[in-house]
Amino acid sequence: MRISTEDLSHHLSKGLGSLYVIHGEALLLAIEAADAIRAAAREAGYSEREVLIAEQGFKWAELCNSAQSMSLFSSRKVIDLRIPSGKPGVEGAQALQEHCEALDPDTLTLISLPRLDGTAMKSKWFTALEQHGTVIGADEVLLAALPAWIAARMKRQGQSADADTLSFLAQRVEGNLLAAFQEIQKLALLFPVGPLSFDQVKDSVMDVARYDVFKLSEAMLAGDAERYVRILEGLRAEGTATVLILWAVAEDIRTLAKVSRAVQQNGNLSGALRDARVWGIRQKLVERAVRRFTPFFAERALRQAAQIDKLVKGLRQGDVWDELLQLGVRCARAGTR
């Protein structure tokens, strides 16, 4: 069974299972989910806890030994197994599958994993965990959903804010959920319960957003020029290599060129996206962007990217950051004027 971190509280209120698996890149949500499961286990009488960390050299027999041994002072225990790499290896994969086949109702197993790729999600060991336990995805909160997430957190401490203030706050903490949580807690310390004004939040919250080149390209595809500029400034302040930024932006422009040409030729957008290997969360972004892009515009953007590449390599003179700004903003605003 798969559930989200938001569903976990309701799930635990209906009773505990024997196996829980937490995976994902949102560290704050993963920590909170594990804490909630351990608290529910303590309340249910699982008074003994054994922590196993499956790093290099870990003996997987310890998992079996732990499951089979019980303390003289407790009849119920928690096995807290952490696999930092997300890759248990051949021996670990076999041990996890065997563990699933021998789950004991008096032993609760909590397994913590990082973000897993598609291969790991389809592996036999992960499939076994999913079939015998509850899998909780601790996924990063996307910018579009961040205002609602912040509002829910503020509500827990008796505070609220209007939509513009929540949007402002979301932009300042984007990509850094742990810092977002700390900033929201700071508001509880600074102000009493009740609605907060924009000025109160603006004067209190630091810009703790954490950006990456993929978010920059995502803003360009979404047609959000303002966000593109903000992220580019953040990447420049963090000292991100311009060659990496150009690569990410040019890759998506190249994809748009390929998809727009195919659509122009045969009108089959789904087939064009499949041929360009566009799927998942990027699919909707590219679908929207390709409606704004013409093949001609995409080719011009690629030529501009080629000129920036020469700039990065020192083959021509100019301001590479300014050129990246112009390219991204031009692409973000394509088809809107």
TrEMBL record:
Entry EC no(s): 2.7.7.7
SUPFAM superfamilies referenced in this protein's UniProt entry, alphabetically: P-loop containing nucleoside triphosphate hydrolases, post-AAA+ oligomerization domain-like
The reaction(s) this protein catalyses: DNA(n) + a 2'-deoxyribonucleoside 5'-triphosphate = DNA(n+1) + diphosphate
Domain DNA polymerase III delta N-terminal: 20-136
PANTHER family in alphabetical order: DNA POLYMERASE III SUBUNIT DELTA
InterPro entries registered for this protein in UniProt: DNA_pol3_clamp-load_cplx_C, DNA_pol3_delta-like_C, DNA_pol3_delta_N, DNA_polIII_delta, P-loop_NTPase
One annotated Gene Ontology cellular component of this protein: DNA polymerase III complex
Keyword Thylakoid annotated: no
Native organism taxonomy: Bacteria, Pseudomonadati, Pseudomonadota, Betaproteobacteria, Nitrosomonadales
Name the UniProt record assigns to this protein: DNA polymerase III subunit delta
Domain of life of the organism encoding this protein: Bacteria
Keyword Nucleotidyltransferase listed: yes
NCBIfam families associated with the record: holA (TIGR01128)
One GO biological process term: DNA-templated DNA replication
GO molecular function terms listed in the Swiss-Prot or TrEMBL record: DNA binding; DNA-directed DNA polymerase activity
DNA polymerase III delta subunit-like C-terminal domain segment(s): 212-314
Keyword annotations: DNA replication, DNA-directed DNA polymerase, Nucleotidyltransferase, Transferase
Annotated family: Belongs to the DNA polymerase HolA subunit family.
